[in-house]
Structure formats: structure tokens, C-alpha cells
Amino acid sequence: MAIPNVRIPSRQLYIDGEWREPVKKNRIPIISPATEETIGDIPAATEEDVDIAVEAARRALGRDDWGSTTGAQRAKYLRAIAAKILERKSELAKLESLDCGKTLFEAAWDMDDVAACFEYYADLAEALDSKRKTPVDLHLDSFKTYVLREPIGVVGLITPWNYPLLMATWKVAPALAAGCAAILKPSELASITCLELGEICREVGLPPGALNILTGLGPEAGAPLVSHPHVDKIAFTGSGATGVKIMTAAAQLVKPVTLELGGKSPIVVFDDIDNLDLVVEWTLFGCFANAGQVCSATSRLILQESIASEFLERLLLWIKNIKISDPLEEDCKLGPVVSSGQYEKVLKFISKAKDEGATILCGGERPQHMKKGYYVQPTIITDINTSMEIWKEEVFGPVLCVKTFKTEEEAIELANDTKYGLASAIMSKDLERCERFTKAFQTGIIWLNCSQPTFMQLPWGGRKRSGFGRDLGEWGLENYLNIKQVTQYTSDEAWAFYKSP
Ligand SMILES: NC(=O)c1ccc[n+]([C@@H]2O[C@H](COP(=O)([O-])OP(=O)(O)OC[C@H]3O[C@@H](n4cnc5c(N)ncnc54)[C@H](O)[C@@H]3O)[C@@H](O)[C@H]2O)c1
Ligand SMILES: NCCCC=O
Ligand code: NA
């Protein structure tokens, strides 16, 4: 299919408010996941560019036009960015879809969320002005104390490809709201819209250096950011393996990190549900939205045995309605996965599951009607035991594992039988049971009678190997603030610890 009428802009690195060619002049091709064709390229930053961007960020913090701004002044920039995102929404959605293969509908949804997130942190930036200095009453005459909340400094924001601009925004918006200067390093697999964010910042007159955008490979552009002595904090979203590398490198400088990593989240379905179809739809959405490339995807269905066969039959019927097509086609509900590497990885997971004795109930291969592109059918796998790789590891593709249970205890044990701890869902009309599960689930996000709805007012993050720290909400802002206590001695009396000479 021909590329629709949207031009992929050719950009450089966004540093110090300007477009700047990478020192080594290297570029990385953009491969369309839908057609496998090269559709453009992005600049590839290296250590030399990281140094230049960090200097620009430090200068921004030292200049009044950024370093001395109030939250209310920063809020104006955030709102202007939000307005530009909405103005360019349909173009940005198309670019996102072309780049990472997500359906145009979901990409447009993301752009609304991106704009709303900038708006939300504009409000929080304004509110910060009155919380910047908080007096603490010690009930002592001789001391006056207060606590300051200040921007943490220069922050490195390293983000993945599954929601390219949205995951970047979850970090960029609060970092700017807090008054930090940021360097964003998006994924080399999907950087187009993040570079457009640079153009938007330029257009709205965001002071130079407040946000810098370095595209490039992880080891070449991300790693030097993590080990740079003048980067004060790293906020990372991505895979567990990269998270370990980042934490290890940051530890050498005792640099704070927040890590939003992967998951293998459960959805537990009880037989007391009134409306089977409603639950079937949440189950599908929970695992196959964004072609399953969602950190919180509920990819382990834990199903009460008494309804298992009826539920699976309905799932199979509903799956037939999932339109698999070029992601730009109307009504497409499942596009390709992001890259050939991800495609091979997902198919390997499926074939290993087969080798280990699991049953592929549906899907499991490339859809026959898609001759090109990294498409994988929505896949359901049964006859699983808990030692299988498919049960234990994050696939990050449209693959649902199913296991059945008889008792509540068994369901909880299966749900928590994972090294990850990002999200859990339970479907039951018994609200007391929902409450018991809320307590028992070892995850940072709990969905009751739904799966995946995400609201920016709520903290987002996990436990166990899903990482630590929280994006979004007021917790997301705290990530970028330093707490400083100030203690003033107000008495004229001598301290009188030593004897006066
Ligand atoms: N918890 C969450 O909120 C959340 C959200 C989205 C995605 N994810 C996770 O992200 C993963 C998929 O994303 P991905 O494949 O882009 O992850 P990834 O770890 O491969 O890459 C993430 C980012 O890290 C960079 N990177 C790679 N090596 C690096 C290094 N040595 N030093 C510094 N940076 C480096 C990459 O270039 C990219 O920008 C999945 O595991 C998914 O669950 C988590
Ligand atoms: N709904 C947004 C989920 C982000 C993680 O992948
Ligand atoms: Na891409």
C-alpha cells in the first residue's frame, strides 16, 4: 500500500533550541513495519552529541529564561505545546502509525493523551509555586524551618517504541513542569514524533536547552547519558535487560534512577460474571491492543474452570472480528509489530511453546492475507504449565496464555506466579472478592472489571522486576524534584554547647 499523504520530515538532533547534525554525521534508516520498506531516516547521536546536549541543558538551568521561571511561566510553555500537538494531531498520528505500526485509531488516541498530559502537568506546574517553600512548625522559638522543592537538575529521559510520543511525554511534561532541563533519548525504532516534539518546542519558543532530543542507538546515545557526570537523574522506560544496565551504570555515580520495565500481567476471570461478552472484550483489549506491545498487557488469562470452554469459544468468535490490516486502514484493529527483530522474537516464543507441549488454540503465525510487514495473528495458547517460557517471559506481542483454576487461592497463586509486578486485573461481580484480590495482587496497578484504562492523574509503575518509581500523577512530578530542608537559628542567645573563653 502506498504511503498516505504525509511527509516524514528529515530532522537533525534537537539541541539548544536548534537542529544540529550529529558530530559523526551518522543516520539510522526508518523501516516501515507495515511494508518493510525504508521510509526515511533519523540522526544517530553519539557520546560527543550527548556532551553538547548536556552542556546546553546546564546552561539553560543557569539562565533566567529557564532556570528562574515560576511554575506558572513554565505552564504557559506546556499549554502551548499541548495546543500544537492538537493542531497537528492527525499528521502526528499518521507519523506514529507509519513508524511503529500501531493502528491509526490508537495513534490518534495517543496524541489526545499526549496533549492532555502536557495540560495536566501545566496545572501541576502552577500548583507547585505555592508548594515550592513549605514552612515546618517545630513549635520552638529559636528555630524557623522550611522545606524547598527544587528541580533536580539535568535529567536524562530514555524511552521505548511502543507508545513513542506518549511514553516520552510521561517524562518530558513533568520534568519541564518541575523546572528541570531534559535530554530525551527515544527508541531508535520509533523516533519520528519525538523529533516533531522538538519542532513544536522551537515553535512555541521554549527556551534553548530546556529540552534536547537525541535520537540514536541505546549503547551509543543512551549509555553516555546514563554515565555522564553532569546528568543528575535518569528516568527510564523499557526492557528489564536494559534497565539492569542502566541501574548498574548509574550506581557508579550514585545517580538516582526510576525504572518502568516490563510485565507479564494476569487477568483473572471468575464464573460469577453476568455478561460473558463484556469480559471477553476486556480480555481481548487487555492482550491485543497495540498488537500486545503494552508493558501492562494482561497476557496471562487465569480462567475459572467451570466457564473455561464457553469463555474460550466466545473468545475465538470475537477474535474473528479483529481486522488485521495496514494500520492506516480504517477499522484496523491489529497492525504489525514494530520491527523484524520483534516479529522473529514473537514467533520464536510461539514455536518454543509448541515444542514445550502447549497447544496453539488459534493464530500462531503470519496472517495469510498480509504478504509483507511484521504481522502476527492474535494467538491464544492453552495446555500451559507454569515452568514454560511462554508463561514466564514477556512476549510483547499479540499472544495470550490461558490457565484454569478451581479455587480463589489457586487463582491468586497463579496470578502472582511471576517475577514481574506491573499490573493485574480481576473480573468478578463479587466486590468483596475484588477487594481480597486487590490486597493479594503483587503489582502497582490493579484493574477491577476492566483491563488497561490509564489515567494520567494516577501513579503508574510496578514492583518486583517491573521496576520502581512512578510516572504520572503528582508522583510523576516528584521524580524531578529535589527536597531541601532549611533550618534557621532565630534566637539571640548563645548556643552554649562549649564554655565561652
Ligand atoms: N513499565 C512501563 O511503563 C513500560 C511502558 C512501555 C514499555 N515498557 C517496556 O519496554 C520494553 C519494550 O521497549 P524497548 O524494546 O524499546 O526496550 P529497550 O530496553 O530495548 O529500549 C528502551 C530504550 O533504552 C535504550 N537503550 C538500549 N540500551 C541502552 C543502554 N545500554 N543504555 C541506555 N539506553 C539504552 C533504547 O535505545 C531505547 O531508547 C518492554 O519490556 C516493555 O514492557 C514498560
Ligand atoms: N496505556 C499506556 C500503557 C503504557 C505502557 O506500555
Ligand atoms: Na520505526
Automatic annotation (TrEMBL):
PROSITE patterns in the record: ALDEHYDE_DEHYDR_CYS, ALDEHYDE_DEHYDR_GLU
Native organism: Nicotiana attenuata
Active site: E260
Keyword hit for Cytoplasm: no
Superkingdom of origin: Eukaryota
Gene Ontology MF term list: aminobutyraldehyde dehydrogenase (NAD+) activity
Protein's name in the database: Betaine aldehyde dehydrogenase 1, chloroplastic
Quaternary structure and partners: Forms homodimers.
PANTHER family reported in the protein's UniProt record: BETAINE ALDEHYDE DEHYDROGENASE, BETAINE ALDEHYDE DEHYDROGENASE-RELATED
Alphabetical keyword list: NAD, Oxidoreductase
Pathway info: Amine and polyamine biosynthesis; betaine biosynthesis via choline pathway; betaine from betaine aldehyde: step 1/1
Entry coiled-coil feature ranges: none
Residue intervals of the Aldehyde dehydrogenase domain: 19-486
GO biological process: cellular detoxification of aldehyde
Keyword flag Oxidoreductase: yes
Family, similarity comment: Belongs to the aldehyde dehydrogenase family.
